Amino acid sequence: MSKKKTLAEKADKHILYQKSVQTADTEIEFVLQVYREINAAEPEIFREDFCGTALLSTEWCRQGNDYRAIGVDLCQDTLDWGMKHNVKPAGKAIAQRVTLLNENVLSVQTEKTDIVCAFNFSYCIFETRSLMRQYFANVRHSLEEGGLFFLDLLGGTATTDIVEEERPIEDENFTYIWEQEYYNPINAHIECKIHFEFEDGSRLDNAFAYSWRLWSLPEIREILLEAGFSNVRIYWEGFEEDDDPDNEYLTGTGEYGEVTEIDQQESWLAYIVAER
Predict the structure, then answer these.
(1) For the segment 249-266, what is each residue's pLDDT rounded down to a tens digit?
(2) What end-to-end distance do the CA atoms of the chain give, in Å?
(3) Among 196, 148, 175, 154, which Cα is nearest to 46's?
(4) pTM above the 0.85 mark?
């Protein structure tokens, strides 16, 4: 009699990632809101760099029949998974407006787009200013006049600590675990991993591993401007008031607004928006 598989053995890491890390609907809502505010116009063509399973590209095309998306990623297996599990299940009307490219974001050539995004800190794989500038310049070249480039970045006083943080995923049978395994203050190189733990006690270790440079906001802003972008805006999450004196953590509202000055925090996630 064969041994019963554990929940970890039966799990699909891409599904786990999408349920615990990505919020495609709210991110697309944010991107659209900012574009409309800056340009007083409606965007149509969206490019998702490091698109992975193309969840954002698929969500973008749900916005209407005029919306088209291009996803770019180096991993063909992940693109194939995204096509099978995200793009095609969305229906033919949406699938025919999503194009997935197995190419390098440093050199990819696409039609001009209204928006390019690189989320989940994926672009931090470029650990030198020259490579980052090359990437940013290629993005700028691909944007229409008035086009916007969206990135996100993590930071805060705890970002360089060697830590493991757990977060149970609501209404699911697993816990998301983010591990900061290594940090070198000499070159800001950081190594992080994602693990998943299940209610039957099994674990999926090292489901995803990242080797990045922990860039700072001033550095990213400077390189964007060096690459030719005309302006760089920073958007920060608002926080709810908490009357509990024993609660040392702020509760995020999920709403992001443009800021030019902010107090340092233990942990933060900011959006960077560069105007062509």
Answers:
(1) 456 677 899 999 999 999
(2) 62
(3) 148
(4) yes
Whether residue 177 contacts residue 164, with contact meaning beta carbons closer than 8 Å, is answered with yes
Any residues with CB less than 8 A from the CB of 159 and at least 6 apart, and which? Answer: 180, 190, 214, 267
Note the pLDDT tens digit of each residue in 140-198: 999 999 999 999 999 999 999 999 999 999 999 999 999 999 999 999 999 999 999 99
Query: What is the distance, to the nearest Å, from the Cα of residue 93 to the centroid of all Cα atoms in its chain?
Result: 25
- Between CA 273 and CA 235 the distance in angstroms is 8
Q: Report helix angle 129-142 to 217-226, nearest 10.
A: 60
**How many CB atoms neighbour CB 212 within 10 A?**
18
Which helix or strand (DSSP H or E) is residue 240 part of?
strand 231-240
Q: Which run of H or E residues covers position 135?
A: helix 129-142
Give the alpha-carbon dihedral of 266, 28, 240, 268, to 10 degrees: 10
Residues 6+ apart with CB under 8 A from 269: 152, 153, 154, 237
